Amino acid sequence: HGDIIEQSDLNYAARQNRSEEQAEELTMTIVEEWQQERAVSDLLRLIELRFGNEAKKHYVERIEQASLDQIEQWFDRAANATRIEDVFAEDLA
Fold first, then answer.
1. Residues 20-47, buried b or exposed e (16+ Cβ, 10 A)?
2. What angle do CA 67, 35, 84 make, to 5 degrees?
3. What is the tens place of the pLDDT at every residue in 28-72?
4. Does pLDDT of 4 surpass 70?
5. How far apart (Å, rounded) are the C-alpha atoms in residues 29 and 37?
6. 7-29 confidence digits (pLDDT tens)
7. Are 74 and 92 a contacting pair, CB within 8 Å?
8. Contacts of 81 (CB under 8 A, 6+ apart)
9. DSSP string, 28-74
10. Residue 18: Cβ within 10 Å count
């Protein structure tokens, strides 16, 4: 599709006027940013589906500022939590 950027296109663009090492670092940075954006989007969607739009609005800033690892942990909790507060409880074992 026209809107999808293929990995080969990204690699080609990253190599232009850059060393192979710089191109690889740039590619990894972009991929990590995409993973982060997708994880944020997925978690916000799950929260909205499970706990409603108000819960989503309340936690959006915290989620957008979190690390990928933290977002993944919250996603796992959100899948089974009965209350939104349980998703973000910092003292869960």
1. eeebeebbeeeeeeeeeeebbeebbebb
2. 55
3. 777 788 888 999 999 999 999 999 999 999 999 999 999 999 999
4. no
5. 12
6. 676 666 666 666 777 766 776 77
7. no
8. 50, 87
9. HHHHHHHHHHHHHHHHHHHHHHHH-HHHHHHHHHHHHTS-HHHHHHH
10. 13
Six token digits for residue 53: 């739009």
Closest by Cα among 3, 7, 78 to 42 = 78
Instruction: Check: CB of residue 44 under 8 Å from CB of residue 63.
Output: yes
Q: Which amino acid is at 60?
A: V
pTM: predicted TM-score of the whole model, two decimal places: 0.70
CB neighbours (10 Å) of residue 49? 11
